[in-house]
Design goal:
Layout: E1 8-13, H1 21-33, E2 37-41, H2 42-45, E3 55-56, H3 58-64, E4 67-72, H4 74-84, E5 91-95, H5 110-118, E6 123-127, E7 130-136, E8 139-146, E9 149-154, E10 161-167, E11 170-177, E12 179-183, H6 191-194, E13 206-212, E14 222-225, E15 230-234, E16 242-246, E17 250-254, E18 259-264, E19 269-273, H7 279-286
Parallel strand pairs: 1-2, 1-4, 2-3, 4-5
Antiparallel strand pairs: 6-19, 7-8, 7-18, 9-12, 9-16, 10-11, 10-15, 12-13, 13-14, 15-18, 16-17
Length: 298
């Protein structure tokens, strides 16, 4: 008998979303029938009617689980990835959101695909994250990780900001614009794509720098080597109207003279996909590209 690769499963749901209760209940019943140990994130457990589930903090899931199942949208998985990056637990996503680039299994197909994954038939990807530090007067005053992107941007609509960009301590440019996106390959299909950035394969060792509404029309996205250190300096001419945001979820206010240092996180996060996962098929479906002419099910 083949030994299963996953024995203890963590369940993480979209915080405050009562609509995930039915999917979570179905997952718990399915996993219990597989004689698997289940740890439910304590915030997720509040949305369950059954008090009998084992609850745990995110650190408990990171330390004790062989696999974490994330139920929600890409935002829920982004948050879970940042929380679990310092642990080795891989993530699989059940999509209850809209686009679902990262959470690529639907509630309708989850039992079928989980049967395969739990049986050892799956793909696994190592995805990179960014680490962001805010430097003020020579000291780091805030740090955070980002799975998709780090964005330096204005918070009030009427004014542009001025930023200086350095790559590996070499000056690149100074520009006035609405914001600057520093993105992982995973994040290339998020905000960076909306701002005109290129789509990168998620396994590339690269970082993309994408300007948002630059005043100079010749300003274009730049793709740099993955181990590059990007430093963005907030010009002295900015008057407290700038902030930095990681994955659209963690925000910190910047002041004139601050530096934002961004580099690749040494550790990666592992994403588990069904065996038939195809990145280009995901792009076709999510971005509404053409159908595959070789698809016999058309």
């Amino acid at each position: 008998m083949t030994q299963r690769p996953f024995k203890t499963i963590g369940l993480i749901g979209k915080s405050g979303d009562p609509n995930i209760g039915k999917t979570l209940a179905g997952l718990i019943e399915y996993l219990a029938n597989q004689s698997l140990r289940i740890i439910v994130d304590e915030n997720t457990a509040t949305m369950l009617k059954s008090p009998a589930v084992q609850k745990g903090k995110m650190t408990d899931i990171g330390k004790q689980c062989d696999l974490a199942i994330v139920v929600g949208g890409d935002g829920t998985l982004l948050n879970a990835a940042r929380d679990l990056i310092d642990h080795k637990v891989p993530l699989v996503g059940i999509n209850l959101g809209r686009l679902g680039f990262l959470t690529d299994i639907t509630p309708r197909t989850m039992i079928e695909y989980l049967d395969k994954i739990l049986g050892g038939d799956y793909q696994i990807e190592e995805r990179s994250l960014l680490h962001c530090s805010v430097i003020r007067d020579g000291k780091s005053i805030s740090e955070s990780d980002a799975f998709n992107d780090v964005v330096i941007h204005k918070w009030n609509v009427a004014r542009m900001i001025e930023l200086e960009t350095y790559i590996n301590d070499k000056f690149v440019n100074s520009q006035r614009l609405d914001g600057l996106i520093v993105s992982t390959p995973t994040g290339s299909t998020a905000y960076a794509l909306s701002a005109g950035g290129p789509i990168l394969h998620p396994l590339l060792d690269a970082i993309t720098i994408v300007p948002v509404c630059p005043h100079t029309l010749s300003s274009r996205p730049i793709v740099v080597e993955g181990n590059s250190i990007i430093k963005v300096a907030v010009s002295e001419s900015n008057h407290d109207n700038t902030q930095v945001t990681c994955d659209g979820q963690v925000t910190f206010a910047l002041t004139a003279g601050d530096h934002v240092r961004i580099g690749k996180k040494p550790r990666t996060i592992r994403l588990v996909h069904p065996p038939q996962h195809d990145h280009y098929e995901v792009l076709r479906a999510k971005l509404r590209w053409s159908e595959n002419p070789h698809d016999s099910n058309r």
